[in-house]
Amino acid sequence: MDPRLADDLHSLPDLLDAASKLAAAALAGLDGRAAAVPPVAVEPGPLPLEGAGARGALDEFTRRWEPGFAASAGPRYLGFVTGGATPAALAGDWLTAAYDQNPASGMDSSAQDLERETVGWLAGLFGLGPEFSGTFVTGATMSTVTGLAIAREWLGERAGVTVSTEGAAALGPVTVLSGSPHSSVLKALSFLGMGRSSLRKVPVLPGREAVDVAKLAEALETLDGPAVVVANAGTVNTVDFDDLRAIAELKQRYDFWLHVDAAFGGFAALAPEHAALTAGLDQADSVVVDLHKWLNVPYDSAVQFTRRRDLQLRVFSNNAAYLGEIGETPDFLHLTPENSRRLRALPAWFSLVAYGRAGHREIVERCVALARDLGARIDGSPRWHLLAPVRLNVVCFTPAGEVTQDRIDTLVRAIAEDGTTFLTPTVYDGRPALRAAFSNWRTTEADVERVFAVLERLSHRPR
User: Fold this and answer.
1) What is the distance between the alpha carbons of residues 460 and 226, in angstroms, rounded to a whole number?
2) Dihedrals φ, ψ of 293, to 5°?
3) Cα–Cα distance, 366 to 363 (Å, whole number)
């Protein structure tokens, strides 16, 4: 054994204690750390010939890289849709690394059973019945890839073709309909061989990002065969929801697979005031839910739900003698693109056990209230223009006056350089804009005040 490995093994408790102290200091200092750190080119160093040992690596990381890390786990990081990590989820994530279980196979531990328990709890949170099965994946994009891969197999079933055997070319052209599809849908269609051009945009309701269900029905009426409909339970810009029940009712007249992107909007189901937005989610054929957003577990973590596990198994099954028989309860390696992976369910399990439905409902309701608070402040300021109602946890707005993409880009850079908060740019209804997404369990009213004060101050900067 390399002597450095032997030394590190001998001093492992001290090493973990040092790493714990560094992590604790980083978390304790989130309030003073910049929400975003503008990138500065760092010259790559050479790979050491002789290692420095784990303590040396810790020192090197602390010196060279740690100062450039953003406070993305903090309460004022409002870019993208980024949750933090609850204390329980963080503990679960550390134990995930320590136990280093591979839950893709159930031959050697109870890790798969823990994951199945966690998936069952999550399905219950979102109102999905026992007809749904679920699997952990890296994020909403891979959940979308998995769901649409099952949809592709379903299209083949309708056409008398086994796509998983004969290939996507045997299926021929397909039609995917959506009002405001997330960009990951296009990536998934490209990846799966259905092609980006298979996506047909359906008109949305006036002033909305929600699909016009009547127009969707008209589009389905023109088709000669089955299709895939991608619906939204929360759009990225304005958290708008398609009428899932009305879309599901169209199945009585038309043949289509209903894939619902509920990456973070699905968490509205936890809050009685907003749960009606997710009505009809249980009528979907596949569902995307991202956990490293509003469940506040560390990256990477998401779940893919479907009611057609038989087709999922047909797509992803991996037959090899060393893997054993598939059986009535397939191992997870037969249900997603991954053969092996970390036990992503453990941080979610920890957080769900620690805080329950009520605790996570409080996080959702507080984030919504804070988003509405910022939206009201922006709406009342002559320096800003609110572009859409604050329907849930995202505020979409733009500066007053003439707005160009250059002006938005300048603002994004200025906000990042200030360090108090971080927002991401977007385009809404053809207008360059900013968006603030609230999904971190740490965020408070005081943070909203600080964010708004920065926005007001930076609005005075030259255009």
Assistant:
1) 54
2) -95, -100
3) 5
Residues of the chain with pLDDT under 70: 461-463
| Interatomic CA distance for residues 271 and 391, integer angstroms | 13
Measure the CA–CA gap between 376 and 452, rounded to whole angstroms. 11
Residue 429 CA to residue 196 CA, distance in Å, equals 22
User: From the centroid of its chain, how far is CA 342?
Assistant: 17
User: How many Cα atoms occupy the beta-carbon half-sphere of 429 within 13 Å?
Assistant: 14
Q: Which DSSP letter does residue 58 get?
A: H
What is each CA distance from 231 to 89, 137, 210, 263, 352, in whole angstroms? Answer: 30, 20, 9, 11, 27
Q: What's the pLDDT score for residue 434?
A: 98
Q: Which of 380, 371, 394 is nearest to 443 (CA)?
A: 371
Q: What pLDDT, on a 0 to 100 scale, did the predictor assign at position 462?
A: 54
Please report where in the chains the tokens 């197999």 appear, as a residue. 153
Number of H helices, E strands in the chain: 16, 11
**Collapsing DSSP states into helix, strand and coil, what is residue 412?**
helix
DSSP letter assigned to residue 273: T
In order of 181, 203, 244, 255, 387, the CA distances from 212 in angstroms are 13, 6, 11, 18, 20
Q: Give the pLDDT confidence score for residue 24 in this predicted structure.
A: 97
Give 75-115 pLDDT, tens digit per residue.
Answer: 999 999 999 999 999 999 999 999 999 998 888 899 999 99
Read off the pLDDT of residues 426-456 as tens digits, 9 standing for 90 and up. Answer: 999 999 999 999 999 999 999 999 999 999 9
Inter-residue contact 326 to 313 (CB < 8 Å): yes
Can you read off the two tokens belonging to residue 177?
A: 């309909």
Dist CA 463 CA 447 (whole Å):
26
Q: What is the DSSP letter of 296?
A: -
Q: 199 has which bridge partners?
A: 176
Q: What is the pLDDT of residue 250?
A: 98
> ∠ at Cα 395 (71, 244), nearest 5°?
115
pLDDT at 43: 85
Terminal CA-CA length for the chain: 61
Residues 6+ apart with CB under 8 A from 355: 86, 88
Q: Which residues contact 158 (CB under 8 A, 6 or more apart)?
A: 225, 226, 255
Closest CA to 287 of 131, 92, 116, 405: 131
Q: Quick one: DSSP state of residue 336? A: S
Give the pair of three-digit tokens for residue 89.
Answer: 């989820």
Structure tokens belonging to residue 17:
């204690």
Burial of 273: CB neighbours in 10 Å, binned 0-12, 13-18, 19+:
exposed
